[in-house]
Design a protein that fits this description.
By secondary structure, the chain is an alpha+beta fold. The chain has two domains: 22-117, LysM domain (Membrane-bound Lytic Murein Transglycosylase D, Chain A); 141-258, Orthogonal Bundle (Arc Repressor Mutant, subunit A). Helix content is 39%, strand content 15%. It is built from eleven helices and eight strands. It has a three-stranded antiparallel sheet with strand order 1-2-3. Strands 6-8-7 form a three-stranded antiparallel sheet, with helices on one face. The protein has a two-stranded antiparallel sheet with strand order 4-5. Helix 4 crosses helix 5 (95-102) and helix 6 packs across helix 7 (160-175). The longest helix has 16 residues, at 160-175. The N and C termini lie far apart (81 Å).
Length: 259
C-alpha cells in the first residue's frame, strides 16, 4: 500500500504519541526556597534560566523565598498500575527528585493524577526547612523521607510521642560532635563494622514511611524532643546490659531512650 510522505510523517508522529502517552509539555508552579537560584530550579525541571525569566516576565535573575514561579516543564498522567518508583525509573529520574518536584512524601497516587517530571538528580541535595522555618538542623527532602522511614521501621506501632522521640534521637546525634553532622550520615553510620540502626541492616529502612511517621519526623526536625536529649533508644525487651546501664531519659510505650 502506498503512503505519501505527509501520511508517513503523521503515522510516525501518532506512534510516538502512543509510545509516550501520559507525558506532555506543560508548566509547573514552583515556590522558591532559601538558597534557590534560577539555574538550580532550571536544572531540576530540565529547562534554562532564560526560559524561566521569559515565562514569568522577569526583568532580571533576582528571586526571593516564597516567590511563585511558572516553570516550563513536562508532566505525566498516572496510569493504572503505576508507582512513583516505576514512573521515576521509566523517565530516568531519581525517586527523590520526583518527590521534590511534586512536594510529595507519601506513596499514594491514582490514575489520572498529573505529576511534574523533574530532570535527573537535580535538587536532591538542596537543603530545605519545613513551613514554620524553625527546624533545628538543615535537611534535604530526601533526609526528611529517610528519617520518616526509620521512624516507621522502629516505632510505627508505638505511641506518637515515641515516634517523635526516635526522630529526636537522630537530631540529637546530628547536633552532637561525636556523631556525623547530617541526618543521612547519622542514619547510615557504621560503628565497628555494624550499622547503628537495625532497619538499615535488615532493609526495613527501604519500606515506605507512614503518614504519622512523616509528621513525627517533621516535628523532630522542628525541635520537638520527647526523648529529652537521648542519643540511643531500644525496645524494653532488650537484654543489652550496656544500653540498660545508661541514664534513662524517657520511656514511652515499649521504647526506652537513654543518654
Amino acid at each position: 500500500m502506498f503512503f505519501s510522505r505527509k501520511a508517513k510523517a503523521f503515522c510516525i508522529t501518532m506512534l510516538m504519541v502512543f509510545i509516550f502517552s501520559g507525558t506532555i509539555a506543560n508548566a509547573a508552579s514552583y515556590t522558591v526556597v532559601q538558597g534557590d537560584s534560577l539555574y538550580k530550579i532550571g536544572k531540576l525541571y530540565n529547562t534554562t534560566s532564560s526560559e524561566i525569566v521569559k515565562a514569568n516576565n522577569l526583568t532580571n535573575d533576582l528571586i526571593y523565598p516564597g516567590q511563585k514561579l511558572i516553570i516550563p516543564s513536562a508532566e505525566y498522567t498516572v496510569k493504572s498500575g503505576d508507582t512513583l518508583y516505576l514512573i521515576a525509573k521509566r523517565h530516568d529520574v531519581t525517586l527523590d527528585s520526583l518527590r521534590i518536584a511534586n512536594n510529595k512524601w507519601d506513596d499514594y497516587i491514582y490514575p489520572g493524577q498529573v505529576l511534574k517530571l523533574p530532570h535527573g538528580n537535580a535538587g536532591k541535595n538542596r537543603p530545605i526547612q519545613n513551613a514554620t522555618n524553625k527546624s533545628v538542623v538543615q535537611y534535604t527532602p530526601y533526609e526528611l523521607d529517610l528519617l520518616a522511614r526509620l521512624i516507621t521501621a522502629e516505632a510505627d506501632s508505638e505511641p506518637y510521642n515515641a515516634k517523635v522521640a526516635v526522630g529526636g534521637v537522630v537530631v540529637n546525634r546530628v547536633k552532637d560532635s561525636r556523631f556525623p553532622d547530617t541526618i543521612k550520615d547519622v542514619i547510615y553510620e557504621k560503628s565497628y563494622g555494624y550499622y547503628q540502626f537495625t532497619p538499615v541492616e535488615n532493609g526495613w529502612i527501604n519500606k515506605p514511611a507512614s503518614q504519622s511517621s512523616v509528621q513525627a519526623a517533621k516535628e523532630a526536625l522542628d525541635g520537638s524532643d520527647p526523648s529529652n536529649g537521648a542519643l540511643f533508644y531500644f525496645d524494653d525487651s532488650s537484654t543489652n546490659k550496656w544500653l540498660w546501664s545508661k541514664p534513662i531519659k524517657a520511656w514511652i510505650g515499649k521504647m526506652v531512650y537513654v543518654y
